[in-house]
Specification:
Radius of gyration: 13 Å
Largest sheet: 6 strands, mixed
Oligomer: single chain
Structural class: mainly beta
Distance between the termini: 40 Å
Order of helices and strands: EEEEEEEEEE
Strand order of the largest sheet: 2-10-9-4-5-6
Number of helices: 0
Helix content: under 10%
Strand content: over 45%
Number of strands: 10
Length: 124
């Protein structure tokens, strides 16, 4: 069964950093375009970043650009999300998912193999 497992979430102070990992099982992550999403309590799931299968195309939503960095680790069959300068508004459960069309990377309904997410809590 194909699925992602997200890890690395924690309680961190405002301004701090975290590194999240999204490891795939049952498929080769490097064959797919991957998106990171987050969902704050009582809010809809929000797209944050995408990386193409080759890693040469990357995009971020405005609220995280310059603070978050998405990257691939094909040896670990994973995609990473380095987060710096964390703000209260970054609090939420973070998920990753896959698509075979880079143009749809930011559209949650078009992605698959969602994991259970990892919780990031930023305290001020």
């Amino acid at each position: 069964q194909q699925q992602f497992e997200e890890t690395g979430g924690a309680l961190v102070q405002s301004g701090g950093s975290l590194r999240l990992s999204c490891r795939g099982s049952g498929f080769v992550v490097g064959d797919w375009h991957i998106g990171w999403f987050r969902q704050a309590p009582a809010k809809e799931r929000e797209w944050t970043s995408c990386i193409s299968a080759t890693g040469n195309l990357i995009k971020y939503t405005d609220s995280v650009r310059g603070r978050f960095t998405i990257s691939r680790d094909d040896a670990r069959n994973s995609v990473e999300l380095q987060m710096t300068g964390l703000k209260d508004s970054d609090t939420g459960r973070y998920f990753c998912a896959a698509t075979n069309q880079y143009s749809t990377c930011l559209k949650a309904p078009d992605l698959k193999w969602w994991g259970n997410g990892t919780l990031v809590t930023v305290s001020s």
